[in-house]
Amino acid sequence: MGHTMIEKIIAHNVGREVNPGDIVTVDVDYVMLDDIMMPFIVSKFKEMGFTKVWDPEKVVIICDHLVPASQVDDTRAYHISCDFAAEQGIKNLHRSDGICHQLMTEAGYVKPGHVVFGTDSHTTTYGCVGAFSSGIGYTEMASILGTGQLWIRVPSTIKVNITGNMPSNVMSKDVILKVIGDLTAAGATYKALEFTGDTVENMSVSSRMTMTNMAIEAGAKCGLFAPDEKTAEYCDIELDDFQKNLKGDDDAVYERVINYKAEDFVPVMAVPSNVDHCVPISEIGDVKVDQVFLGSCTNGRLEDLMAAAEILKGKKIAPFVRFIVTPASRKVYTEALKNGTLDILLEAGADITHPSCGLCCGRTGGILTDGEVVVATNNRNFLGRMGTNKVNIYLASPRSAAMSALTGKISAAM
Amino acid sequence: MEKFTGKVWVMGDDIDTDIILPTEYLVFKTIDEMKPYAFSPLRQDIAKDIKPGDIIVAGNNFGCGSSREQAPEVVKALGVKCVIAKSFARIFFRNAINNGLLLIENENLADDVKEGDEITVTINEKIEYKDKEYPIVSLPDNLVEILDAGGLVKAMRRRNGIMD
Questions:
Q1: Which fold has domain B3-137?
Q2: d(Cα A131, Cα B132) in Å, to the nearest integer?
Q3: Which of A139, A219, A221 lies nearest to residue B64, judging by beta carbons?
Q4: Cβ contact (<8 Å) for A47 and B153?
Q5: Which end of chain A is more exposed for a tag (fewer CB within 10 A), N or C?
Q6: Are A400 and A390 in contact (CB under 8 A)?
Q7: Are residues A49 and B156, on separate chains, in Cβ contact within 8 Å?
Q8: Closest of B77, B86, B67, B76 to residue B12, by C-alpha
Q9: What are the CA-CA distances from residue A7 to residues A14, A18, A105, A157, A354 (Å)?
Q10: Residue B1: pLDDT above 80?
């Protein structure tokens, strides 16, 4: 009997065949620790009686939620992060290089077939290169730091198969919002999502990243794309035999297969205040926009900024709209600066911020108040996420976000 | 089997971790400082009304959203005896068990129960409400071990030869 992608990754890790429902202990290839959780991770680690991390090479600490600080006590987490790295001989420390989920693949850590855990729910992102990655809490992270291992239940898999050519105004963000809308916010809880079909094969790794980033919004344990030549180029490796074979077998057992025709996709938004409230933009009606946010680990990459720039080139956004652009990393920022993308966005009226989690987690760079409307390219529109609990957050693709900034009302990309 | 009775707070589907504890309070040094803000985006004053021994009953996907472990910790710190939901989000489920917060899955109770009423729970066996009984399934052994140790920190201390 064949196996799904997640079964193959876990089997490779534990050295024997596995099936959904099996409880196994995996050896962890990398862990990602973000600044906001560091004070708790370090105190639990010490409370557990550990003194040394199991392998400093496999630990990556990333300051992204709290840099630059926006409240007086924020730098405490920064110092705890830096001190722990120094004490443990951890060289993989990013003090201000961008958002954790961007850096884990961009900076060359995660490769196809790896098993990775992070103290942030959007750790599912690294499935974009065919790694099994998932979010955990700080207590479990502390136990991995001490032991290098974690118990997991092998998940069953839902296959999302997409074929055909996407309309030019549709981005991978529209695709994943539609999939989440159909599955619902709990539709993939405890399960793996495997994305297949020629449509996703034609997507860039960046576009795939948007989809695996949001797999958690359907409750999934992980989201996976089979590694291919694009993955190899992005990761700067040659795929070995295990990695080449890392795709779901034809006779693998899937809990469910969902088929989409790419031609059927239209620009959509997740309307307040749940990610699975997916509505075609053409049905949303006349909604005035106060602010647009282009950024985050979901859609803050070069291709996202360039997609917005294509729409805004030589134009000005609506005068009453606050347009905040947050590149996902220092590298993205530099590239967008060099190729003229930031010029176009600045000319159009954007405020470009430092690369960080920023507004997505509601801590800095554009907090909103009662009754305001924001069109945002990030991954969550929960109550109170970007300010008060009466802010209306609409999640959209970079193209639709740019079009909404231009018109000053909720608008679909053309 | 342990048996307890408590007053019920009723919540809906998809109670996410930003509702359980908004991001702005995560930087507080202690869980005690975070307590007054639990569930504040949804119900401003509920945190001060929840009393030790109370029980939260909710719909599907309780604890969805971020991996913040402060969410189950703050629920436990309020003295909530257990959360009974139609289903739980994956990370919240693990985090709750690791902190010794009991979670019980039940499909039907949330549709029947009224806020303020009392229910009786017999662990790994049943819930009783008015004249009705709701069976509950047992947790897997590896999770019971963590709960029995009093959470993952204590389990790891034991592993490292520290006797509490």
A1: Aconitase; domain 4 (3.20.19)
A2: 47
A3: A219
A4: yes
A5: N
A6: no
A7: yes
A8: B86
A9: 11, 6, 22, 9, 39
A10: no
Q: Do B27 and A36 touch (CB under 8 A)?
A: yes
Average pLDDT of the residues in A351-357: 96
Q: Convert the pLDDT of each residue in B57-82 to its tens digit.
A: 999 999 999 999 999 999 999 999 99
pTM for this one? 0.93
Rounded distance between C-alpha atoms, residue B96 and residue A275, angstroms: 23
CA distance B131 to chain A (A): 31
- CB-CB neighbors (< 8 A) of A137 in chain B: 67-69, 72, 91, 94-95, 98
User: Which pLDDT band holds residue A172 (cuts at 50, 70, 90)?
Assistant: very high
Question: Do residues B75 and B47 touch, judged by C-beta distance below 8 A?
Answer: no
B65–A47: do the CB atoms touch at under 8 Å?
A: no
Burial class for A131, CB neighbours closer than 10 Å (0-12, 13-18, 19+): buried
Tokens of A316: 């000005």
By Cβ distance, the residue of A40, A143, A385 closest to B69 is A40
The A residues from 55 to 74 touching B (CB cutoff 8 Å) are 66, 71, 73-74
Spatial separation of the C-alpha atoms in residues B18 and B92, rounded to whole Å: 12
**A59 touches A145 (CB < 8 A):** yes
Contact A289, A63 (CB under 8 A): no
Whether residues A23 and B140 touch (CB distance < 8 A) is answered with yes
| Interface A-B: count of C-beta contacts within 8 A | 125
Residue with tokens 């795709």: A247
The CATH class, in words, for A5-262 is alpha beta
Residue A287 pLDDT: 98
- Cβ neighbours of residue A352 under 8 Å, at least 6 residues apart? A325, A326, A327, A342, A345, A346
Fold classified for A268-407: Aconitase; domain 3 (3.30.499)
B119 three-class SS: strand
**Does A254 lie at the interface with B, CB-CB under 8 angstroms?**
no
B102 Cα to chain A: minimum distance (Å): 16
Alpha carbon of residue A175 to chain centroid? 14
Please report where in the chains the tokens 């059927």 appear, as a residue.
A264
Which pLDDT band holds residue A282 (cuts at 50, 70, 90)?
A: very high
C-alpha closest to that of A290 among A319, A314, A269 = A319
Beta pairing class for A59-62 and A30-34: parallel
**Minimal C-alpha gap between B37 and chain A (Å):** 12
Please tell me whether residue A366 adopts helix, strand or coil conformation: coil
Whether A352 contacts A359, CB under 8 Å: no
Residue A268 C-alpha, separation from nearest chain B C-alpha, in angstroms? 21
Are B98 and A135 a contacting pair at CB < 8 A? Answer: no
Reported ipTM: the value is 0.86
**Residue from A75, A117, A382 to probe the interface with B (highest B Cβ count within 10 Å):** A382
Q: Kind of pairing, strands A278-280 and A268-270? A: antiparallel
- Measured distance CA(A114)–CA(A264) in Å, rounded: 34
A112 to chain B, any CB pair closer than 8 A? The answer is no
Domain locations in chain A?
5-262, 268-407
Secondary structure class of B36 (helix, strand, coil): helix
Instruction: Report the relative pairing of strands B102-105 and A392-395 from DSSP bridges.
Output: unpaired
CB–CB of A176/A273 below 8 Å? no
